[in-house]
Amino acid sequence: MKKYNFSAGPAVLPREVIEKAASNVLNYNGSGFSILEVSHRSKDVVADMDNAIALVKELFGLGDEFEVLFLQGGASTQFFQVPMNLLNENETAGYVNTGAWSKKAIKEAKAFGKVNVVASSEDTNYSYIPKAYDIPSDLKYLHITTNNTIFGTQFQELPETNVPLIADMSSDIFSRPIDASKFDLIYAGAQKNMGPAGVTLVIVRKSALGTVSRYMPAMLDYKTHIENVSMYNTPPVFAMHVSMLTLEWIKSQGGLTAMAASNEAKAKILYDELDRNSLFYGHAVKEDRSLMNVTFRLHNEEFEAEFLDRCKKEGLDGLKGHRSVGGFRASIYNALEAEGIQKLADLMRAFEAEKA
Amino acid sequence: MKKYNFSAGPAVLPREVIEKAASNVLNYNGSGFSILEVSHRSKDVVADMDNAIALVKELFGLGDEFEVLFLQGGASTQFFQVPMNLLNENETAGYVNTGAWSKKAIKEAKAFGKVNVVASSEDTNYSYIPKAYDIPSDLKYLHITTNNTIFGTQFQELPETNVPLIADMSSDIFSRPIDASKFDLIYAGAQKNMGPAGVTLVIVRKSALGTVSRYMPAMLDYKTHIENVSMYNTPPVFAMHVSMLTLEWIKSQGGLTAMAASNEAKAKILYDELDRNSLFYGHAVKEDRSLMNVTFRLHNEEFEAEFLDRCKKEGLDGLKGHRSVGGFRASIYNALEAEGIQKLADLMRAFEAEKA
Q1: pTM, two decimal places
Q2: Residue of chain B minimizing CA distance to A214
Q3: ipTM more than 0.95?
């Protein structure tokens, strides 16, 4: 039986990416060596890094005003590395608090400068994306979490402001086109839409750098990695390589416009069933629903374990909700096939009929 | 023709480790999913992490006074994370400068406290390990680089002192037994003797922590990772997994005593030929020669390109020396088979005969 991976992250990757990756673990580009044991200074690894950077620029339509970095440490490292590099102690950064990850970013930023939480949806357990709030024009930047993996909400439109945006896009990067002109910095742990765990993408506008005066260790200064094309130290070669393969796959599927169309169609299958089905209800408000993470519950919580068990038996894996929301979470990233989502919707319908 | 990988790092891994890793990229423990796409909270990944930690403790004979962490960012991150966690501004740390990596560690430490470079071999381009120097007893710690990848030197004995040692063991970890009682902290990028690039091992004595007063971002505080068994954020799952497989392989070979015996026998093949051969000479002084990285040159530098070319044709790969030493460097880590080293020694002998 074919299994479908609804895990929130690390998450489903395209099968052809996995097969190419496995092949290069055995014999990298026909060299006779594994990609796990070749020098990061070798011609092929340098070419992979250059290719990965070029693909990020091409997919997002980035001009020369942006630098693309492949780093380590995940979004959790970016929570402090961003303000360390961009925020002086006497300056103020704005943050929109849309969930657990935003909160961590806010906490880390407070050590480096002033933080103004301009809006929050904490009052309803983050079931919506705040709108129509005041954004002071003198903020150094405004930080948003474009998709909230745990709560299943997603910014459908960017905040209207001239303040440069900084976004944690860990769980919806490369799922749709973006307007790069509005951003000073974008970061994402790879392990949802763009690769395996162990590599972090950072896209930074060059002109945003060089404005803070504090001391930074070499490894934490974005300029170190820009000057060394992400090879100041040994990069996470394999995780970068698999990200490159995934970016190639996204391009081969038609790029971000095609991804967005596919993701909309896929999410519609599940949200339509959720709205029709009398047993289930969604956590996120309709207008802010995520196309990546669908959070939902049963009105009768007593059936939860049974439904999860049924899912597992049907090959639908990783659907248990995060403890802060409960119920279920279907993570339906770029690489998850529509058939798997249809199978889940069908099971919800069958479950409703049984319980009627 | 079989090829041999003399690369300094990322470096040769045991073939059976590579084959198991490739198999788990395709189908992790029979789950039907790739190890690249499964949750780090899944039972199997948690078991791998626990197993990797247990293997480190077993191989090094570590008691409960030590914690074992699998982090990101490489030794270059430890250069600042160590003093950030262990050195107050009014305290002094000692450093032995035995090469490029020691120098970077020294530079980063200066931002966090006082640094006393108690000894250095910079005067002879790091061709030896300093001995018989004064170590003030009030140092917070003494930092050494046990093996110097670039220069081909290695501490054969630990400094005699009651000051707790901190060691960068990136290029000789698990190549021989250690006396853990002398160390407060050991760190190593995995990509030489214990795995692929993308994961960093940190072993820390619990009692060494909690003595600094400065603010640390969550990701930089060792205590964060101890409390969360290296899963505060998404760890580099696959790099950790391959490290676990490599540790299992080391254990299956007979552990560190067997590794040391094998490494001594392997290095002897090459050093014996180096001492016999009239064309070549070594960079490191004999008593400090590394069992991991053999640095050597031709008296007549005009033959360098030709010899490298001959090596390549014989399937001996990655022998070009680092630019700061020149000539050749044979990195002969745990997983490099003796046949490859014998082949290199034979080629040196044949080359001598041709040029006679």
Answers
A1: 0.98
A2: B111
A3: yes
